Amino acid sequence: MIITGTAGRVPERLAGLVYLDAFVPETSGFSLFAAGNPDRMARFKRQIDAGAAGQPPDMFDAWTDDPDLGDVLRARCTPHPAGCFANGVTLSGHERDIPGKMYIHCARNTGSGFGPEYHRVKNRPDWHSAEIDCSHDAMLKDPKTLATLLERFATPCPNVPIS
């Protein structure tokens, strides 16, 4: 969500956006996260009301089926800005001006709201898309495939499809 809000503010500084198993906001001030999980959001709102600026990651069991990778994620993940969970992001419309957009879906992250996001954007003409056969931990579980996809997107070649 953060990259979309940023893209709307400085589109001239960005050549592309990559969403790795993420929400793609299209309505200003609307939180897909809050709409998708109201019980979890109520807990986050209590934390925000108590002064929390960031929401620590809390679903490591859904992100990986490997306990060792779960420990790595717990040690390295940082809080996510809490306001976008509760309120979405402010969109200017300029985020649509970014020439390249890619969605990488982690196919084994079942039950998350990211699958519907992937299916919503994957056939749009201004999007590239791909799936990785892992949970939400693609950067640890399959870094080579992820790096290959990112490299192809960053340096597109004619007649070499990404998806």
What is the CATH homology-level superfamily? Alpha/Beta hydrolase fold, catalytic domain
Q: What do we call the CATH topology? A: Rossmann fold
Outline the biggest β-sheet: 3 strands, parallel
Task: Report the average pLDDT across residues.
Answer: 85
CATH class: Alpha Beta
Q: Measured on Cα atoms, how large is the radius of gyration?
A: 16 Å
Sequence stretches where pLDDT stays below 50 over 5 or more residues? none
Distance between the termini: 23 Å
Quaternary structure of the protein? single chain
How would the blueprint of this fold be written?
Blueprint lengths: L1 H8 L6 E5 L11 H5 L1 H12 L4 E2 L4 H4 L3 H10 L3 E2 H6 L12 E7 L7 H8 L5 E6 L5 H4 L1 H12 L9
Parallel strand pairs: 1-4, 4-5
Antiparallel strand pairs: 2-3
Can you walk me through this structure?
The chain is α/β, with parallel strands linked by helices. It has one domain: Alpha/Beta hydrolase fold, catalytic domain (Rossmann fold, 3-Layer(aba) Sandwich), CATH 3.40.50. The chain contains nine helices and five strands. The strands form two sheets. It has a three-stranded parallel β-sheet, with helices on both faces. The longest helix is centred in the first third of the chain and has 12 residues. It is globular. The model has no long low-confidence stretch (mean pLDDT 85).
